[in-house]
Amino acid sequence: MRIWMMASSAMLSLLAACAPTATRPPLTSSAHIDLPRFMGEWHVIGRIDYLGERGDVASEDVYRLNKNGDVATVYRYRKSFDASDKVKTLSSTGLVQADPSNAVWRIRFFGIFKADYLVLEVADDYSWALIGQPSRKLAWIFGREAVMPDALYSNLIEKMRGYGYDTSKILRVAQIAQQVGQPGFHE
Questions:
Q1: Does residue 184 sit within a domain?
Q2: Which residues face 78 on adjacent strands?
Q3: Which of 108, 109, 133 is nearest to 119 (CA)?
Q4: Cβ distance 69 to 48 under 8 Å?
Q5: Where is 39: in which H helix or E strand?
Q6: How many C-beta atoms surround the C-beta of residue 33 within 10 A?
Q7: Is 24 part of a structural domain of the chain?
Q8: C-alpha to C-alpha distance for 155 and 159, rounded to whole angstroms
Q9: Which residues constitute the domain of residue 117?
Q10: 185 occurs within a structural domain
Q11: pLDDT at 30 over 50
Q12: How confident is the model at residue 99 (pLDDT cuts 50, 70, 90)?
């Protein structure tokens, strides 16, 4: 069931990416990504909710650079912090596009579905990253640490607004049980 939901979500995202945007300029990135530094665990601190990740907590993307230049990606998540709820995973492949910035990717799910992925910005020390999609229908705020200070999160939300996102749609993701039910975190 989860695979079907992810496939459906990927297909909807693909269709949404092809839909014309209103009067906003195209989403672009000025980031230059050092791929080896970008690899590793990224906690999903915030995201625009969609079917594929709806209700997920303690979610993270784990990236590993393959010899051919593609990025093996594993999305790890749970549905609750209940001890009986085991970590689930979903694999995909990041296809880094021929662009000297390494910021433009296509994510391939199940070998057939593809979705655009754009690294909008990354901290100098690679402690956080902002991820978008050209349609602006999906966005993620990533952090290397599971808990992000409120002030930094607010700053990153403002950065997303600067990229033309409706930041009221970005939900803060609980990464530890103590965050569940706290102001600003999704239920």
A1: no
A2: 57
A3: 133
A4: no
A5: none
A6: 19
A7: no
A8: 6
A9: 2-18+31-179
A10: no
A11: yes
A12: confident
pLDDT above 90: residue 66: yes
| pLDDT-derived band at 9, boundaries 50, 70, 90 | very low
**Residues 6 or more apart whose Cβ sits within 8 Å of residue 98:** none
Q: Is 138 exposed, middle or buried (0-12, 13-18, 19+ CB in 10 A)?
A: buried
User: Is residue 23 in some structural domain?
Assistant: no
Percent of the chain at pLDDT > 70 equals 88
CA angle 27, 30, 32 (to 5 degrees): 130
Q: What CA–CA distance (Å, rounded) separates 35 from 177?
A: 31
Question: Do 46 and 156 touch, CB atoms closer than 8 A?
Answer: yes
Determine the Cα–Cα distance for residues 162 and 154; give it in Å rounded to an integer: 13
Phi-psi region of 125 (alpha: psi -120 to 50; beta: other; left: phi over 0): alpha
Segment 134-168, tens digit of pLDDT? 999 999 999 999 999 999 999 999 999 999 999 99
Nearest alpha carbon to residue 106 among 25, 10, 36, 12: 10
Domain count, the chain: 1
State the pLDDT confidence band at 52, using cuts at 50, 70 and 90.
Answer: confident
| Closest to 26 (Cα-Cα) out of 185, 104, 134, 176 | 134
Q: Six-digit token pair at 43?
A: 């906690």
d(CA 4, CA 9): 8
Q: What's 113's domain CATH number?
A: 2.40.128.20
